[in-house]
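To the wet lab folks,

You asked to see what we're planning to order before we commit. Fair enough. Below is the target structure as tokens, and below that is the sequence we designed to fit it. If anything looks off to you, flag it before the synthesis order goes out.
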């Protein structure tokens, strides 16, 4: 995902797959600074580097949070 695409998803629910672990988590994008994305995972905030993860928009039916 490119930075511009991530910025459009600020405030929206997304699924995030971290390449180094393969785990898929659901959260909300809070901010984007450069290639760094701040995501809220159920109250725990984490900064992710865009090249190290795959972020996809999630529909309401796919998100349980």
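Sequence we intend to order:
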């Amino acid at each position: 995902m490119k930075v511009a695409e991530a910025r459009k998803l600020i405030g929206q629910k997304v699924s995030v797959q971290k390449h180094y672990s393969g785990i898929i988590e659901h959260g909300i994008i809070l901010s984007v600074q450069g290639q760094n994305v701040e995501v809220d995972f159920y109250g725990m905030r984490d900064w992710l580097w865009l090249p190290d993860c795959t972020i996809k928009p999630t529909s309401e039916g796919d998100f349980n949070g």
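Structural context that might help your review: Residues 3-58 form a domain with the SH3 type barrels. fold (CATH 2.30.30.520). DSSP finds one helix and five strands in the chain.

Thanks,
Computational group
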